[in-house]
């Protein structure tokens, strides 16, 4: 942990030095795009942020940064013409998300401010214009591709156009369903933890510092180090019970203790801004008891016996009725491929399965359900009993239209989107004056970006 901490501090020092150099030197213009300029300090600052994110030093990455900024400028300029905008609330939310990540890596707000050489508020103001332009560029890119779609013939043409050596092979894949039985504490078992939250709230109400209480007692690992601070967010960010309390209070008000699936909370509103609220909270997580685990197992055993006694069971219906996992119960109990969530693919490569699940399904036949097993979530440590269902198995094979149409459709769509955007940029580059500093003209990603007349002026014969 000490080595990791030192590494982060060194990276933050780089970020601090980059800011200091920006202040001490006259900025060089790295590129001109139409009426906009990209400064060398813009590139250095983003490179420092790249290091803060945990990446290894790689000066060549600055070429990619400049390419991204060139595309961002072109998109933002077109967005003005097409009246494409983003709300201030969206910009605020993105900035807050970034700052929470930076503060977590730095070990808190004070350490981050120390290495930045400025307050977080000042830093937010500095990065705000670029963040806003980045979000506008994303919105413009979406507009460019909003009418793109793929037909079955498009997928066929895409696949038949692939070179034989570029047709990918797929590993063995499975479709696995689950019914999750989470241990639940009864009212008596919860009471101790509710009273603990009530005691902490009472201490805050009597005048003790909220942030100090949160750092010392809150069991939310991400916000506790920040004094319980969650930053700005809208209603959709939080579970309904939390949002209900956060959005009905006035600035400075303290909520009563309330319960969510995470545990017992109380919160305080720091600031309201349109449809967003800035809050801090304290979370007390009830510990599971052996009786609660026993009750979950008894329920799981009962459901398993009923399903085994049926000649033909409806796993989807059983999951929707009995499962405690909201992510899968409304999907017929089927798990989603974590690497392909956007397409909601249920085909999961066996090497991507949770090892606990892979061990059980490897011995199952298609259509079979497993006996209830106790699982421990690798990330949260939470325990639950699960009944697994092996819906299908697809052996390793070369991609083909019959077995892999859905995957190939995604690939064809991605290819079509990329070609649409590339054609748009190719046209815009020809219509826009672009000048790039000689330091970056040899960058492979920037080939074809410079306006021809600029090249002639930069390299006179």
What are the main properties of this structure?
single chain, 461 residues, alpha+beta, Triger factor/SurA peptide-binding fold, Chitinase A, domain 3, 3 domains, 4-stranded antiparallel beta sheet, 17 helices, 50% helix, flat, disordered N terminus, disordered C terminus
Walk me through this protein's architecture:
- The chain is of the alpha+beta class and 461 residues long.
- It folds into 3 domains: 185 residues, Orthogonal Bundle (Triger factor/SurA peptide-binding fold); 126 residues, Chitinase A, domain 3, CATH 3.10.50; 98 residues, Chitinase A, domain 3, CATH 3.10.50.40.
- Helices cover 50% and strands 15% of the residues.
- It has 17 helices and 13 strands.
- The strands form 4 sheets. The chain has a 4-stranded antiparallel beta sheet with strand order 9-4-11-10. A 4-stranded antiparallel beta sheet has the order 5-8-7-6, sandwiched between helices. It has a 3-stranded antiparallel beta sheet with strand order 2-1-13.
- A hairpin with a 2-residue loop joins strand 7 and strand 8.
- The N terminus and C terminus are likely disordered.
């Amino acid at each position: 942990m000490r080595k990791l901490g030192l590494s982060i501090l060194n990276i933050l020092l780089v970020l601090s030095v980059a800011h200091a150099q920006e202040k001490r030197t006259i900025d060089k213009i790295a590129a001109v795009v139409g009426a906009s300029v990209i400064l060398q300090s813009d590139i250095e600052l983003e490179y420092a942020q790249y290091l803060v994110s945990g990446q290894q030093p790689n000066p060549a990455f600055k070429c990619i940064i400049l390419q991204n900024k060139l595309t961002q400028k072109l998109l933002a300029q077109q967005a003005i013409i097409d009246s494409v905008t983003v709300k201030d609330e969206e910009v605020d939310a993105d900035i807050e998300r970034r700052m929470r990540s930076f503060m977590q890596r730095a070990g808190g707000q004070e350490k981050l401010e120390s290495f930045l050489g400025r307050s977080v508020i000042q830093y937010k103001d500095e990065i705000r214009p670029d963040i806003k332009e980045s979000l506008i560029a994303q919105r413009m890119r979406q507009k460019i591709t909003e009418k793109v779609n793929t037909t079955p013939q498009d997928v066929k043409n895409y696949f038949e156009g692939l070179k034989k050596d570029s047709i990918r092979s797929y590993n063995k894949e499975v479709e696995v369903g689950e019914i999750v039985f989470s241990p639940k504490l009864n009212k008596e078992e919860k009471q101790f933890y509710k009273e603990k939250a009530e005691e902490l709230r009472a201490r805050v109400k009597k005048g003790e510092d909220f942030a100090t209480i949160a750092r010392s007692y809150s069991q939310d690992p991400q916000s506790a180090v920040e004094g319980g601070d969650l930053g700005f967010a809208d209603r959709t960010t939080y579970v309904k019970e939390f949002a209900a309390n956060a959005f009905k209070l006035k600035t400075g008000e303290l909520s009563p203790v309330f319960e969510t699936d995470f545990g017992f909370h109380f919160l305080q509103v720091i600031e309201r801004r349109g449809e967003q609220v800035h809050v801090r909270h304290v979370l007390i997580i009830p510990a599971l008891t052996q009786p609660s685990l026993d009750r979950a197992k008894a329920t799981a055993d009962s459901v398993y016996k009923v399903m085994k006694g049926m000649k033909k069971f409806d796993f989807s219906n059983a999951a929707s009725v009995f499962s405690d996992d909201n992510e899968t119960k409304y999907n017929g109990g089927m798990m989603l491929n974590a690497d392909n969530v956007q397409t909601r693919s249920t085909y999961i490569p066996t090497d991507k399965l949770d090892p606990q699940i892979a061990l059980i399904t490897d011995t199952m036949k298609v259509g079979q359900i497993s006996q209830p097993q106790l699982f421990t979530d690798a990330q949260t440590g939470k325990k639950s009993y699960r009944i697994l269902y092996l819906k299908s198995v697809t052996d390793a094979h070369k991609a083909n239209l019959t077995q892999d149409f859905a995957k190939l459709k995604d690939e064809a769509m991605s290819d079509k989107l990329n070609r649409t955007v590339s054609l748009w940029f190719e046209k815009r580059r020809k219509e826009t004056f672009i000048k790039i500093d000689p330091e970056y003209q040899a960058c492979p990603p920037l080939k074809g970006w410079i306006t021809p007349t600029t090249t002639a002026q930069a390299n006179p014969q």
